[in-house]
Amino acid sequence: MSHPHPELTTPGPLPQGALRIIPLGGLGEVGRNMTVFEYDGRLLIVDCGVLFPEENHPGVDLILPDFDAIRGRLDAVEALVLTHGHEDHIGATPYLLREREDIPLVGSELTLALLSSKLREHRLKETAQHVVREGDRIAFGPFDLEFVAVNHSIPDALAVAIRTGAGLVLHTGDFKMDQLPMDGRITDLRAFARLGEEGVDLFMTDSTNAEVPGFTTAEKNIAPVLDRVFHQSNQRLIVACFASHVHRVQQVLDAAVSHGRKVAYVGRSMVRNMAIAKELGYLHVPAGVLVDAKELAELPPEQQVLISTGSQGEPLSALSRIAQRNHNFVHIEEGDTVVLASSLIPGNENAVYRVINGLSRWGATVVHKGNALVHVSGHASAGELLYCYNIVRPRNVLPVHGEIRHMRANAELARETGVPAEHVVIAEDGFVVDLVDGKAQVAGKVPCGYVFVDGSSVGDITESDLKDRRILGEEGFISVIVVVDSQTGKVVGGPEIHARGFAEDDSVFDEIKPDIIAALDRLLGERVDDNHQLQQAVRRVIGRWVSNTHRRRPMIIPVVIEA
Amino acid sequence: MSHPHPELTTPGPLPQGALRIIPLGGLGEVGRNMTVFEYDGRLLIVDCGVLFPEENHPGVDLILPDFDAIRGRLDAVEALVLTHGHEDHIGATPYLLREREDIPLVGSELTLALLSSKLREHRLKETAQHVVREGDRIAFGPFDLEFVAVNHSIPDALAVAIRTGAGLVLHTGDFKMDQLPMDGRITDLRAFARLGEEGVDLFMTDSTNAEVPGFTTAEKNIAPVLDRVFHQSNQRLIVACFASHVHRVQQVLDAAVSHGRKVAYVGRSMVRNMAIAKELGYLHVPAGVLVDAKELAELPPEQQVLISTGSQGEPLSALSRIAQRNHNFVHIEEGDTVVLASSLIPGNENAVYRVINGLSRWGATVVHKGNALVHVSGHASAGELLYCYNIVRPRNVLPVHGEIRHMRANAELARETGVPAEHVVIAEDGFVVDLVDGKAQVAGKVPCGYVFVDGSSVGDITESDLKDRRILGEEGFISVIVVVDSQTGKVVGGPEIHARGFAEDDSVFDEIKPDIIAALDRLLGERVDDNHQLQQAVRRVIGRWVSNTHRRRPMIIPVVIEA
């Protein structure tokens, strides 16, 4: 299995009749999925999602794919295909549309409805939208697209087959193969088989669960567990899940109806998404079951069900506030039951356990995936991927959607089903893969860094700023200000020393002030008036002192100001 | 089950003949275990460990128990009993000994040997040490102690039975009930039974795994898995595990011998602890198998085994450096195998996955608890705890060692075996539990905050400093310096504006400088010369500007300096 290393360089020009694949996100991380296809000078984009920052991206709101590789060629983009409505597949679209507003958007009904609501929030115009459904075939420039139903943890997900002169590519998007899904809409293996018979030249497959042996449990298997939880509870019930998981919410609604309870949504995104899903007919809300949250609070506890966001322990979410008994109208009580009907995204463990501990402290029973089957994954496990490889029998495989460990596991599955190792390409973000004469291989690499969104700025925050933030966040800073008379070259003010995140009263610095003045006087006496040199002298004195006295390394900000 | 809430106040005086239990750590978190027993004016301490900080304690090195509750009474301490040699049970001892150097230390041979090595690092004198072993009975003041063998993930762990006039307390320490342990030293249920027959008035039991159903797998079951991994590997093998896990290292040594490989240790704590364990006879190193790391590097890869630290993804550990191909003499190659023979402590997931992804990138096979039985826990699962409750049949139960969710699950197990709910006490750090006339109950609460070690300072860093660090770490800061002539009351220097972690060139602030000067001039014109008011004015101008232009809230440090 080919996994070339970072000495790759910018690829040469694309050979006539070849297809170039440029993954700009999602190959090396779970999130910011985006792939560019290039054929005959024209571009097709599949997905444009965000990545949620982890602890080494302090203060960052979102991480976007790096559009640099196509920035000069946005006019050549024929369409943006969105495989489903999750944030990690659609969330960066507004940022791309800011750069070219009229890129045609292609996706299923629910996907585009969720996207529209996002575009409105960003105050972007509704651009050309092409609603497609499984079985549809539609061409954008040289890209002849066919859509295939796939099952995932959000309704209406699509795989896409892309035909060009270079051959047939099948991109699964995120998918699994629940054989008895809530909506009866299964991953269409008959279509996979038909495409396989035609000959799939490149199969791009979801790697997320490739390390997980066996088969992903069916969504429906949660129902009896929810039923038991509802049966055992004689007080308030709170169910937290992802705000886009229509089928999970459906199951909670159904359980509420059969146990004679009413339901209210808590959390802005839950309210918004479920309204869309209901309006389009993806969510079936039995008459009378849904009430407004304040109305619900007036009912006896044994008739209440809250469906809320906050399943990842987000500190500002309703659930976190409930766990701290800090919520407007939901006051958790001994005997209440809280169900976390969701995955636990790596990195969120401590936050989620804080919520569970908080709820436990007040005597609530907490049901979560660690102690009951209240969550199933949205991704195909190894067993399902093997079925796919055996049905499609692709010529080449490019694992997508996952960290390196996931992609390697996926590649290994392809190999085990008989795809020759030299036809299984492991690529990371920015690796350029060319499909030439029926063979896929890495042709080079383009820059593909993380683009950070922070407040209203996009791409201004760099790794170096994050490094500063990490130092500031771990060690705090000491700032030393000295005023020098520009005429006399004498210190006339300060040193004033201020520290934050450093823990000592600022008077602790009094002992080092004479040394700072002495160091400056010495330099000024030598007629050194270069501000940078003076600052460095201050930095050295205070840095040495703090290291000796405190064994710490705060950021030191020396300021020599002339007045 | 009683779990009183924070409105508790300082407890009244201890009734004559009663025993008071003051948990100063470990009840509400996994770590910094420390419990104080008070009887007849005298004190006994069991364990004195550290807690490792998580992401909301930025820059903190260690967290200690809060000694405040006993600070004025250290002379009354009869002894400090250490149940086993893990950091979360012994690590804070040097800090306690700094406050009273000659507290008698009581523990098993290995526990005290590991502690001695720690005291030497802290340059503390070796104080009175009492080596005890299972079956020993020894009194310290009014506390009559009996030690009971327990099995854990480090050899030579002890439970302790404490007899006073108030009754018999049995404290398990950390334990599990491996029935076929490597060293044949099982948790002594015959002693538990005998104590139970005598009558255990209070049973303090390890809660860590109380949420885990069933039984903890035996350590020995790892051997066949290691054997298979060794058998399948024909290149270098690296096994990472905790540096105190003598039996895990023993199994790796044994596998190395049977597969004709040599072993070297990597990581300072691994080298140090295994030397101690070998010298005392807890680790059996077959002749010739152990070589020095540089010597090992000269051998053919198929003869190499490295046993290293870094199993939690610690960024500076050997394993992290290997994963980044940044290690002095270990260069990871396609086909190498790395075994993470350890748990994954919550909060470390991203760091560990970074290491796994790094190793995978170079083509190493990574074996970990997610895909093979290469780790078993050191703590009793629910099934084992039920055995204990049924054998001991305690009058009262106080779950210890765990977060609230663990302690509540443990309490529930006690209740299920027939301990009346009103005799199961759920307490958190600082809750004072009195055993009076055979009944344990919460008598009040003493302050028991986190004590942060940062560099050479202990307890100087407060929650407010951490809040500053969190803001600095997420948002960075903007500092604005203005020099005012103290004679004329005019702005004569600045504003100089410096930002860090904020992402923009400092010239972005030029546009706001006139507004700052105008605001100051206005105040100075009104003869306002209170420095604080001037600073607030500067803060308001720049704060409003940055919020409008950037939608962010960096820390703002206004400095008005007189010259």
TrEMBL record, chains A, B:
Gene3D superfamilies membership: 3.10.20.580, Metallo-hydrolase/oxidoreductase, Ribonuclease Z/Hydroxyacylglutathione hydrolase-like
Entries under InterPro entries matching the protein: Metallo-B-lactamas (IPR001279), RibonucZ/Hydroxyglut_hydro (IPR036866), RMMBL (IPR011108), RNase_J (IPR004613), RNase_J_2 (IPR042173), RNase_J_b_CASP (IPR055132), RNase_J_bac (IPR030854), RNase_J_C (IPR041636)
Lineage top rank: taxon: Bacteria
A GO cellular-component term linked to this record: cytoplasm
Cofactor binding mode and count: Binds 2 Zn(2+) ions per subunit. It is not clear if Zn(2+) or Mg(2+) is physiologically important. Binds 1 Ca(2+) cation per subunit. Seen in 1 crystal structure, it is not clear if it is physiologically important.
Keywords: Calcium, Cytoplasm, Endonuclease, Exonuclease, Hydrolase, Metal-binding, Nuclease, RNA-binding, rRNA processing, Zinc
Gene name per UniProt: rnj
Any one GO MF annotation of this record: RNA binding
Keyword Aminoacyl-tRNA synthetase recorded: no
Compartment(s) of residence: Cytoplasm
Quaternary data: Homodimer, may be a subunit of the RNA degradosome.
Residues reported in the UniProt entry to bind substrate: A243, S244, H245, H375, V376, S377, G378, H379
EC number: 3.1.-.-
Known cofactor(s): Zn(2+); Ca(2+)
Record-listed Ca(2+) binding positions: G59, D61, D454
GO biological process, one term: rRNA processing
Function: An RNase that has 5'-3' exonuclease and possibly endonuclease activity. Involved in maturation of rRNA and in some organisms also mRNA maturation and/or decay.
Annotated TM spans: none
Active site as annotated: D206, H379
Name of this chain's protein: Ribonuclease J
Binding locations of Zn(2+): H84, H86, D88, H89, H152, D174, H401
Enzyme class per UniProt: hydrolase
Keyword Transmembrane helix: no
Main location: cytoplasm
